[in-house]
Amino acid sequence: MKYTRCKSRLYSLRFLPLTAALVIVTGLWSCGQKNTTLEEGNSIYTDGRQWTYNVTFSDSSDTVLSNCTLKLSVGASSVSSVLAGQKGITYNYSNCDSSQSFEETTGVDESAEGIFLHPPRLGAFAFTEVAPFPRINYPAELITSSEVELTVRKSAFKPAENKTFQHIIERTVTDTLVFKDARIPCYVIEGRNTNYIKEIGQYKCKYWFSPKYGFVRLLYYKPDSSTVDLVLADTNF
Hints:
The chain is mainly β. Helix content is 2%, strand content 52%. The protein has one domain (2-29, 46-229): YmcC-like fold (Beta Barrel), CATH 2.40.360. It has one helix at 79-82, and strands at 2-6, 11-15, 20-23, 50-58, 64-74, 87-94, 101-111, 114-117, 135-137, 142-152, 163-179, 182-193, 204-210, 214-221, 227-235. It has a 15-stranded mixed sheet that branches. A hairpin with a 5-residue loop joins strand 4 (50-58) and strand 5 (64-74). The protein is globular. It starts with a strand and ends with a strand.
């Protein structure tokens, strides 16, 4: 069975006062790789591009429960007018912790200030409504710790409906991941919800961002210590 949804849900995102900011100089680009940002005219999430992720569901003891593949495609869609100023993206995934197939259309906001990506939020990924969405602020070298509020009106994850979640999201360390037989430098962003912990639990996230490929890994920790790990396996660029 295949489910299709155009994500026209209303979200209210509010950034609270910045709690900490520190500019540091790292060796992330010391090997001659140029930092690609939108300020230089090089957007990442452009029409026609595709990302394929391998997804692993594991329990609290790191035992693998299931695997699946998720594809993210960027292209014009009606959602662009619904999500003001955002570019339409489509997620396709099936057999992710269930036998259902999903085609989910949502958006990505990319500007000179940074990137804000709506994650997959149906089926086995419905819980991602509770965690902070993938986000990077430019310049990426800036270490930040921010408090963010996200109001969810409707959701496939029913406990999240009509709630305003308070999040802490931090750009923490740098890291490298292997992709296409090369080591790619990444900035790491970590976050968690700080309210509704008794009612829903605390959901934590860790995102790896590459200035060339965008978000290359999305790791989620559920309240029961199980994990959902999305790792980039391929792109068409």
